[in-house]
Hints:
mainly beta, 9 strands, 0% helix, globular
Amino acid sequence: DGGFSLRDVATGKLRRFIRPLGPAGHVEAVRNYAFSPRGRYLLVQGASWPKEDPLKARYWHVLWDVENAREIRRFDGDRWSFAFHPDGSRLAASDGSSDSVEFLPLP
């Protein structure tokens, strides 16, 4: 159904449902996802492909507040590799084609 069901580990009860949407307003392809170290945030990476050039993927990232199932921020662009800092204060992102890493602050 195009989303993430977050369940209580002990009971299996559904706690939250998060549906990340791409630029076109729907889920096109979820490629990666990661939770922050304390589980406060969920970062979802997706991709869409233009009909006129299906070999040129456009990547997008959506940062979610897990507890409130609320989208906090979007990161568009060619970043396709990411990791949360161990203290959860920022996100490291790279385009994968250079030796540089960009650090993005989290709320």
